[in-house]
Structure prediction request, 174 residues.
Amino acid sequence: MEIARNKFVSLSYQLRLNGAEGDLVEETGESNPLQFVFGAGKMIEMFEKKLEGLKQGDDFSFALKSNEAYGEVNTDAIVDLPKNIFEVEGKIDDSLLKIGNMVPMQDANGNRLNGIVLEVTDDTVKMDFNHPLAGDDLHFAGKVLEVRDATENELVEAVGGDCSSGNCGDGCSC
Prediction:
């Protein structure tokens, strides 16, 4: 059976930055594979295109340019926020505002965002809301472990679900 729309896919892979010999960012094995319903819109579009048509047991190795993956770094997504918005009950948790920390936030429309703390001053916090892999070329190498028809429950979960399952990994669009 080939990888195609509405097929359940299980993969082991290594994700490296900027080429096959680049820094290892993520690795999944047979005991903790990436599992998803192909074509459900949860994965990077070009990631799926490169996998389409592969079969169980097939090896793969391909690169995605940054514009095919998480895009270029958007300087508009790096913002200075007033420090007081981080107050809870009149206090700021200084352990939250450490450089490099990822802080879950919401925008004015209630959309969930993750921002990385870049700088903290007396009055402001510089946050980066770009995906952590924005601006990076990605290289995936791995093996197709399983391809089968997705169950009705898997299809429902894929369309209405989210990435809270823990199987999302950095290959997805969460």
